[in-house]
Amino acid sequence: MADKRDYYEVLGVDKNADEKTIKKAYRNLARKYHPDVCDEEGAEDKFKEVSEAYAVLSDDEKRQRYDQFGHAGMDGFTAEDFYQNVNFEDIFQGFDIGNIFDMFGFGGGSRSRGRTGPQRGSDIYTEVPITLEEAFNGCEKEIKITRSELCPTCHGSKSKPGSDPVTCSVCGGTGQIKEVSNTFLGQMVNVKPCRKCGGTGKIITDPCEDCQGKGSKRKTKTIKIEIPNGVDEGNHLRVSGEGNCGEAAGLEGDLIVTIHVKKHEKFIREGDHLYLEQQVSFPQAALGDVISIPTIEGKEVEFKITPGTQSETVYKLRGQGMNSVRHSSRGNMYVTVKVVVPKKLNSKQKELLEEFAEVSGEEIKHIEKGLFDRVKDAMK
Fold this sequence. Notes:
Elements: H1 7-11, H2 19-33, H3 43-57, H4 60-69, H5 79-83, H6 88-91, H7 97-104, E1 124-130, H8 132-137, E2 139-150, E3 166-167, E4 176-183, E5 186-193, E6 202-203, E7 216-227, E8 236-239, E9 255-261, E10 268-270, E11 273-281, H9 282-287, E12 289-294, E13 300-305, E14 314-317, E15 333-340, H10 347-359, H11 371-378
Parallel strand pairs: 1-9, 11-15
Antiparallel strand pairs: 2-7, 3-6, 4-5, 8-9, 10-11, 12-13, 14-15
Helix pairs in contact: 2-3
């Protein structure tokens, strides 16, 4: 999914674009790149790209999921899942609708197929906050999720134990109905899931009392997940089989976990590197010193300040940054030195600094305090 372009960028619309703007943008691009009218190399791929973008952004539920999780939120969607709510007849008047569906892999020129076979369950999504130290070391987290699980009484059949569903009288058990519409090109046949049976071809006459004929029940459970070291803000983890149960003995969906790394009081993270500000005194900066600084591992390391260090000087400590999820090596830690000038000096300190200035050939002009400053000092 990482190589896909942003859907809003694909359609050339703003993220706050309304339904009318998105539809207009898609219609223009889809007609431009439709294989019936465009001979450019790669036109079919561009047509598929804009069609997928429109299919997501024109559907409120899919758009909300995409806005929150990006392309990771679309993982597990089949071609039919993407396009089941797209009204192609409205957008492609004058084009061969059958070719469009063949292109997307539906086959048969139908708009949608009956769902009579096993269907994979949908994915569910959650978020987990962790500390920067937990991101460095990796950790185990217990999280609570609510998902659909097969009804323990009917085991997903939706019927009361001992009873069987009957064949749908509307579609004859096919799960599909044909609708004929008249266009200026003639009659167009469109195949849709049967509304009476929902595309299953069967009618439940005696529903399971435990699940009220749904075949599944909502259950809240606590699971443990392993978070690898090196994860970063916004990373997604996929836990197989912990999503919603499938239809007709289909596989369960997955659990998608979004990682949020809490702000650290000392370190700032950028990729695999860490950044730290270290305050030092003027004597330390001028004369040099060896001090201890913290690391993300929780221990301190010796840090050498070279004589004459200027404020805002950046030192690199190789290999003292974050672990990486992409490779075995660690990032670096960059220490920015901040020379702190004391706000108050005692008489001895003033005397020594004045002597230092005199030896350095500097003439210090003392600023006399006004009445306000003297009153302010007296109140301290």
